[in-house]
Amino acid sequence: MDAATLARHLETHLRVATFPVGILPLAPGAPIPPKAKRPKKDLGVEVAICQSISFARRYGWTLAFSGDDLSCPIAKVAFGFKDRIDFYEKGSLAEGMYASCSEAGKAFEAALPRLARDEVSAVVVGPLARIAFEPETVVVYGNSAQVLRLVNATLFEKGGAFKTEFTGRGDCADIIIRTRQTGEPQLILPCYGDRIFGLAADDEMAFSFPFSMAEKVVKGLEGTHAGGIRYPIPLYQRFTAEYPATYQELERRWKAGET
């Protein structure tokens, strides 16, 4: 299944408001797709990774970014574009904001998924329906009901429970790195930065999965759809409404033959 076909299935079953996004980390030396915009060169700004994903899902743009294009220090470290110096390692970024003390801050940084230094040279993101590359990861933003459909789909064949992990910060690492390293779908709770810079709305969540799971996800969406689990979720309407007392009195009088 190619990326465009997967996008059609996702949009048919989920009716999401923004484009599903394909993501590809590039190994050192791998070429950047020729039509990909470079944030610093082509847009004149340095960006956060969540901001780049937002360009892809809202504007339909394909962007490629390396460390030089990034403004977010956490992303630079997590994606191996910058060194994890002592100031970072000891929890300074989280202390006083997310963490009560440096030890808690240090634990936050230790829990954040990360790539090795220079493991990738750049990352490319673009709208799944139009990208000119095969993605490694797919991420879909939607409301909780739409994301629920994706959870249903991934459990369709095997059943059981869906498990995920996040720290409440650095969701770009959860989307791209944790999905890559575990080979498993991830439920994404947009972090504070994604809400400010990536414009994730209060009613949005996200769901990421390896592109290699495309056929399994589609089979799960189709199977659960056939079983009656669909979006938009239907409201129960097969009932007789109850009306105010005066309305009921009118009905009583009609039935009594009053003219």
Spans of at least 5 consecutive residues with low confidence? none
Radius of gyration: 23 Å
Distance N to C terminus = 69 Å
The secondary structure category is alpha+beta
Strands, helices and their partners?
Blueprint: H1 3-14, E1 21-26, H2 39-43, H3 49-59, E2 63-65, H4 73-78, H5 86-89, H6 102-111, E3 122-127, E4 137-142, H7 144-155, H8 171-182, E5 186-188, H9 192-196, E6 205-210, H10 214-226, H11 245-255
Antiparallel strand pairs: 1-3, 1-4, 2-3, 4-6, 5-6
Helix pairs in contact: 1-10, 7-10
Q: What are the key terms here?
A:
259 residues; alpha+beta; six-stranded antiparallel β-sheet; 39% helix; elongated
Describe this structure in words.
The chain has one domain (3-234). 39% of the residues lie in helices and 12% in strands. The chain is built from eleven helices and six strands. It has a six-stranded antiparallel β-sheet.
Short description:
By secondary structure, the protein is of the alpha+beta class. 39% of the residues lie in helices and 12% in strands. The protein has one domain (3-234).
